[in-house]
Amino acid sequence: MGRKFVVGGNWKMNGDKNQINEIVNNLKKGPLDPNVEVVIGVPAIYLAYVKSIVPDTIGVAAQNCWKVPKGAFTGEISPAMIKDVGADWVILGHSERRTIFGEKDDLVAEKVINIGLSQRSDCFQCFFMNSNNEKLPFQVAHALESGLKVIACIGETLEEREAGKTEEVVFRQTKALVPAIGSNWDKVVLAYEPVWAIGTGKTATPQQAQDVHASLRNWLSTNVSPEVAANVRIQYGGSVTGATAKELAARPDIDGFLVGGASLKPEFVDIVNATQ
Ligand SMILES: O=C[C@H](O)COP(=O)(O)O
């Protein structure tokens, strides 16, 4: 079976109730290609509101979460809370989280693993190996059935690209996620977002994006399994617009988009429908 095209709209820290109503009305009007999975990434404070007004055919994602179910973590939200308000996705490891808030590969992996572990009711104290082969304790005092799906973001900076390190960086970022994801690859979408293309108006060319997606799939085949490589969906993100989406979508290893700025605008419908 082919990979279902998946388009995420990451609103980032934008929108108020009026703007959200407009965006959702526009999505309802569509029409949206029924063969495309659509997920909107909503600011945490509006998750419940959006869930209450959006059709069930559209997935709702938080843009971040912390790595344990509950506790003294002022300002954070947990996967259990996201699930509790009816959302079923979370975006993790976005480059803005990595660069502005200093989130490193291992923290992103710990957040991902919490989502996998929270489905295990027998897991009170778990460990996983980080990318430096250190055994990290992971306390799950009250294991939860969160069952969230994850959009895991990776991507290189301009400096890294110009130094010829694109593959090294995206492989390293993906490698950190592998032990955390375990056998839950069917609940994960990878989003390749070159940092230099985010919010800059500079889209990677379709060939540049395709090349990285194909290398990543190849890496997954060798380092995880040919089955995961064949089935995992890899989104492209970075200044995607209604005008650039079609050409990008035509590349064989681009399985969708993670859209920032344009997801707030009516053209998001054209991006969702890019494979038509
Ligand atoms: O999560 C989305 C990406 O950061 C892309 O944002 P952008 O479409 O505004 O460049």
Automatic annotation (TrEMBL):
InterPro entries: Aldolase_TIM (IPR013785), TIM_sf (IPR035990), TrioseP_Isoase_bac/euk (IPR022896), Triosephosphate_isomerase (IPR000652), Triosephosphate_isomerase_AS (IPR020861)
Record field: catalytic activity: D-glyceraldehyde 3-phosphate = dihydroxyacetone phosphate
Pathway terms, separated by semicolons: Carbohydrate biosynthesis; gluconeogenesis; Carbohydrate degradation; glycolysis; D-glyceraldehyde 3-phosphate from glycerone phosphate: step 1/1
BP term (GO), one: glycolytic process
Keyword Isomerase: yes
One GO cellular component, as annotated: cytosol
A UniProt-annotated Pfam family: TIM
PROSITE patterns assigned to the protein according to its UniProt record, in alphabetical order: TIM_1
Enzyme class of the recorded protein, top EC level: isomerase
The keyword DNA-binding appears for this protein: no
Keywords: Gluconeogenesis, Glycolysis, Isomerase
Coiled-coil stretches noted in the UniProt entry, renumbered to this chain: none
Source domain of life: Eukaryota
One term of GO molecular function: triose-phosphate isomerase activity
EC numbers for this chain: 5.3.1.1
Similarity field: Belongs to the triosephosphate isomerase family.
Complexes and interactors: Homodimer.
Protein name, as recorded: Triosephosphate isomerase
